[in-house]
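Fig. S4 source data, part A: sequence.
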Amino acid sequence: MRKRRKKSLGRTLIGMVFITIGIIACTVSAIAGIDAYCASDINKWLPIYPEAELIDSAEEGFFRPRAMGITQQLYYTGDDVVDVRGWYREYRRDITQGSYNARNANTASSGVATTDYSIFEDTDNGGTLIRTYSECAYN
């Protein structure tokens, strides 16, 4: 009878190990999937202006910027403010095709991520500063 108990206990422990490994694998897969979905959504709704240079970044997130968590970035481009605004306006027009956020035209209301941007003239160096904000799966 003792031998039978030892075998039963051994099988139970092996089963618990496999269940624990399965739970960890499922959790890691879910988090990686959410992170990838967030990154894709942010890149869709808030692309980086072509050839803009990242000059400052603040992340409060999980693995990488512009994915799960909150990311604030500041970019510089030598292009004129009017050109940069026009580029973002045209890009947003193309992806929204008629949908409109009445509260704030710069804030995307579709998708899982929240995105926002601000465009400023760089009076010190000429050119334009672009401040971006993204938040996804943070709360």
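Fig. S4 source data, part B ends here. The radius of gyration is 23 Å.
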